[in-house]
Amino acid sequence: MRPMRRIRVTVWNEFLHERQDPRIAEIYPDGMHSVIASYLRSQGFETRTATLSEPEHGLTQDVLSNTDVLVWWGHMAHDRVDDGVVERVYRRIVNEGMGLIALHSAHLSKVFRRLMGTPCNVKWREAGERERIWVVGGGHPIAEGLGDYFEIEHEEMYGEPFEIPQPDELVFISWFKGGEVFRSGCCFHRGLGKVFYFRPGHETYPTYYDSNVLRVIGNAVKWCAPVERPRPVHGNVKPLEPL
Amino acid sequence: MRPMRRIRVTVWNEFLHERQDPRIAEIYPDGMHSVIASYLRSQGFETRTATLSEPEHGLTQDVLSNTDVLVWWGHMAHDRVDDGVVERVYRRIVNEGMGLIALHSAHLSKVFRRLMGTPCNVKWREAGERERIWVVGGGHPIAEGLGDYFEIEHEEMYGEPFEIPQPDELVFISWFKGGEVFRSGCCFHRGLGKVFYFRPGHETYPTYYDSNVLRVIGNAVKWCAPVERPRPVHGNVKPLEPL
Amino acid sequence: MRPMRRIRVTVWNEFLHERQDPRIAEIYPDGMHSVIASYLRSQGFETRTATLSEPEHGLTQDVLSNTDVLVWWGHMAHDRVDDGVVERVYRRIVNEGMGLIALHSAHLSKVFRRLMGTPCNVKWREAGERERIWVVGGGHPIAEGLGDYFEIEHEEMYGEPFEIPQPDELVFISWFKGGEVFRSGCCFHRGLGKVFYFRPGHETYPTYYDSNVLRVIGNAVKWCAPVERPRPVHGNVKPLEPL
Amino acid sequence: MRPMRRIRVTVWNEFLHERQDPRIAEIYPDGMHSVIASYLRSQGFETRTATLSEPEHGLTQDVLSNTDVLVWWGHMAHDRVDDGVVERVYRRIVNEGMGLIALHSAHLSKVFRRLMGTPCNVKWREAGERERIWVVGGGHPIAEGLGDYFEIEHEEMYGEPFEIPQPDELVFISWFKGGEVFRSGCCFHRGLGKVFYFRPGHETYPTYYDSNVLRVIGNAVKWCAPVERPRPVHGNVKPLEPL
């Protein structure tokens, strides 16, 4: 087989909670993005990071053009993400096939909502309860290496109805101790791009040190990576056959 | 609008547990099929019943030809269902559009497994635990009249991975107190026919007296009802355009 | 069965081509919306019309609140549709379950693109060529009454790749004489609402007098009609079980 | 990234047409399987072949246990494939994740029909007409390297309705000169296994020398390859949480 080109990942984080709340800083002193990026590097992905406070949020056209998969964590500052940057990210996904992994509260990020076409609201509860993530995706590559389920001891709860289109491929369903369920691993195709939503990752818990969570993110990077194809032709075309 | 023709339903039950176990007979003295049929009649459906011990299991060609939607409950006697009858039911679904509602342990019935193309195994536990059925199907007609969820106080547990193809439309996901989840309301299209799998209904609990459960079965009858179309043409055909 | 409440339909048309081009006016002297509305009335639907030039494009909150299914035809004036009206239509669909039938060039309408989350571009050609619409949806209610295919003698061509998410249910695929194919009958679920895209209907051809085309629109109205359900609860919730 | 283990492919062919018809023997002197296998080897896959006339059709348990992806071509001898071998292949797919690529007339093979749960009939015509295969799968890995479409100058026609469940992912739609369309690249998940149906490949044309056709088969091998996961636990289980 052809040697696969190294996949280039950019991990984006608004990086505010970790700098504003000492308890969160204790868990993620360099930000959640650093922990995720560190894992992805260890798996051989060419990985960089970007954050809200950088110029253009660190997502210049040049950075995006050299990103195969964008990992996104945002929560309290969705509205502070510049619309021009959102447009740029959106186009890079739909028109050029960049993958997007939307983590946890990124369900309300501008770009994810735009890609879904729905408001993407959820039920939620911050009670540090147990989440058990069941694999329903059979032989889906994002489930590689996982058993029937894995557990996260303390997490924020997200509950149904999750206001998204039916996923093209549903990989995980979460059980929560407080009584709810959630479609927590969801695949979507949008234009040439692929999008994976993955639920876990509240900022007050050490979720992104969990080996199963990291493994899923790594698997998703591979699934999301662009496929080399010319951009489709749209617009007025001549007939291919005699009329 | 044209007045809708009355939908003709046949409720099939192996009707063994209710006759062999006095505790079950106490809950369903005339069988689960009678309770379900009684509700469907009250909703205006033309409803009859059929059981395993009748000649041809009560599913003669004539009965099937006059059935729009077949409701199926089976458990301990899947293997005693005649293959010829299974074939007849299968053809009536795929070739002529009869709907099938497979209830609870019917996940292992011959006809459901054949329609799925998978073994349809589940995890299970008889502990009378709480089941909370969440609606993820938004505006799906099978969810008509339901809130975000409904509960069944005591039920057998079925857990993932449920060995089925990804449903064409996923309407319900169950939460179980013991820690599992389950895709408990699943729509499938097969040829001209539509199939709905609905999880609840263990014989030792009065599940089929529950108003939400009954409502779902009634909604599903409407969703499953055949669409009037000529049977497709297959085989060798002439060109429709000059070659 | 409960008598079904009459479904209330609003047929919206930008109604510009028919007033600006005499050849089109000859085909549709009162606009395409009038022809479609007339058919829907004949099928028993409570039907009104609305057009771009009316105040608020005829889509006041009151009109929308009393519309179960909105049929939309637009082409040259997508950009002149007020964003506030688009928002209102969008909310009525996603939050309250109003159905949307997007016809032909409505693939580029603001509300359809927003619901899809993709740019929705197509290939196209105005050559009056033959379109043959194949039914791949088996027992789907939108195919009721149709054979394996139907033909439209003269139509504009739309060709793949149609930049939409994979439809939840694909009902029709078009064959075009000039060599292209198109997914021409596509179902989508968005929040509580259901959306049907139906390809045919270029303004220069008498497509909306075609009995098969009208039948499909009528079938789609029934499929799109809202399901009575309370609006979902989102936001912060208390546990349903002890933590 | 971890170096990927070489994917092990077995190309199965009934290998009858090529030995019985001199005109076909001229095109494929060593059988279609040899041509396909030769290409797959050139792409770095560990590839072997197997044919109907070998003991156990060349698909012993040992061969299957060492096969990651099985490519299947059959036509005139579907009924001569031993049921025990079919069962073995089926289990290896569903229970252990082996991939299956069903080519052309394999739509009527025992194992494909069993996996689908439907009869899988088609319209057909042997007229050597032009087939144009359109890519509707956006960024799907099976479309890697393809433009908007590719053509096969002479092929047998297969036409809709193709009696299969709605594919989990629809990658290709074919246009035929004689007026039909066909869903010609279809992905299905079955248990731990993945199945790809690919339409082209009538024995009387040199289709399996076509570079686009070969590329698709190679892409599909990668998509179909098993994911390393423990086999799911089914049956009676203990609660994971206090009841």
How would you portray this structure in words?
Four copies of one chain form a homotetramer. Chain A is of the alpha/beta class. The first copy, chain A, has one domain (8-224): 3-Layer(aba) Sandwich (Rossmann fold), CATH 3.40.50.880. Helices cover 25% and strands 30% of the residues of chain A. Chain A contains seven helices and ten strands. In chain A, strands 2-1-3-4-9-8-7-5-6 form a nine-stranded mixed sheet, sandwiched between helices. In chain A, strand 3, helix 5 (83-96) and strand 4 (99-103) form a beta-alpha-beta unit. In chain A, helix 5 packs across helix 6. The termini of chain A are far apart. The model of chain A has no long low-confidence stretch (mean pLDDT 97). Chains in contact: A-B, A-C, A-D, B-C, B-D, C-D. The A-C interface holds A 94, 114-119, 121-125, 127, 129, 157, 159, 161, 163, 165-166, 168, 177-180, 188-191, 232-241, 243 and C 94-95, 114-119, 121-125, 127, 129, 157, 159, 161, 163, 165-166, 168, 177-180, 188-191, 232-241, 243. Strand 5 (123-135) of chain A pairs parallel with strand 10 of chain C, so a sheet runs across the interface.
Tally of individual domains of chain A: 1
Count, helices of chain A: 7
- CATH architecture identity of chain A: 3-Layer(aba) Sandwich
Give the oligomeric state of the chains in this entry, treating copies of one chain as homo and distinct chains as hetero.
Answer: homotetramer
Biggest interface and its residues per chain? A-D, 41 and 41 residues
